[in-house]
Amino acid sequence: MRKGFFIVLEGPDRSGKSTQAVLLKEWLEQQGMQTILTREPGGTAISEKIRKILLDPQVKAVPVAELFLFAVSRSQHTAEIIKPALAAGKIVISDRFTMSTEAYQGYGRGLPAGMIRTVNRIATEGIKPDLTVVFDVPEQEFEKRIREAEEKNGPDRFEREDIEFRRRIQKAYRTFSRRKGIKRIDASKSIDEIQSELRVLVSETIKDDIR
Ligand SMILES: Nc1ncnc2c1ncn2[C@@H]1O[C@H](COP(=O)(O)OP(=O)(O)OP(=O)(O)O)[C@@H](O)[C@H]1O
Ligand SMILES: [Mg+2]
């Protein structure tokens, strides 16, 4: 049976990943390709429960605990969803994967890169995406969005610390988008423009199976 394809969309919060993932899935299905859309943290019963813990503002985890919570979620997600779907020849689109841990727990929380690589390798059983697309928010656009959010919510809604954290994440993805083998998309473009670029990237990856 034909091996599936594993496509990962990465980028800072609100950079447009989920919007594009849904459009991409629709398009692939129109071409008759069996496609599943999944997300991290999440995708399985255990992972969705962990997602709730991670997203609960009342719950404060130290960085290493946070790293392990994501790793538990990812290992279940890989074994239960991603691996079987790929073995069945499906296209898997994951809204975030290992690179998010490098960005948030690494650049964001300051955990060492080597620790994160090790934990990621264990959690994914070595499975690697065939295509990782990074939604890169250019510096000017990032500053503009922060200003707009401040104007909308009032300056107090965004703590300085939070803005600094976001800035580290944005810079992390900037850096990752230049890695060999990683594809970059300018997240400041329109939804339609981004979707066209994404379709080209995906077609190149799975060119034997798609026109
Ligand atoms: N290219 C775009 N231009 C302008 N607005 C956009 C664009 N793409 C998405 N949006 C809007 O920006 C918001 C965030 O988009 P989306 O939820 O897809 O981002 P995300 O990367 O999945 O965010 P998160 O990491 O928080 O899940 C939504 O309101 C969406 O409609
Ligand atoms: Mg999203």
Description:
The protein has a five-stranded parallel beta sheet with strand order 2-3-1-4-5, sandwiched between helices. It has helices at residues 17-30, 45-55, 63-87, 98-108, 113-124, 139-153, 160-176, 191-205; strands at 5-10, 35-39, 91-95, 131-136, 183-186. The protein is built from eight helices and five strands, in the order βαβααβααβααβα. It is globular. The two termini are 20 Å apart. It is of the alpha/beta class and 211 residues long. The site of magnesium ion has 3 residues, from helix 1.
Structural class by helix and strand composition: alpha/beta
Q: Going across the major beta sheet, what is the strand order? A: 2-3-1-4-5
Radius of gyration: 17 Å
Distance between the termini: 20 Å
Number of helices: 8
Portion in strands: 5-15%
Report the CATH topology name: Rossmann fold
Question: Can you tell me the residue ranges where pLDDT is under 50 for at least 5 consecutive residues?
Answer: none
CATH superfamily: P-loop containing nucleotide triphosphate hydrolases
Give the overall shape: globular
Largest sheet data: 5 strands, parallel
Give the tags.
about 210 residues; Rossmann fold; 5-stranded parallel β-sheet; 8 helices; about 55% helix; globular; binds adenosine-5'-triphosphate; binds magnesium ion
Offer a concise description of the structure.
With 211 residues, the chain is of the alpha/beta class.
Write the layout of secondary structure elements.
Elements: E1 5-10, H1 17-30, E2 35-39, H2 45-55, H3 63-87, E3 91-95, H4 98-108, H5 113-124, E4 131-136, H6 139-153, H7 160-176, E5 183-186, H8 191-205
Helix pairs in contact: 1-8, 2-3, 3-5, 4-5, 4-7
The structure holds adenosine-5'-triphosphate (ATP) and magnesium ion (MG).
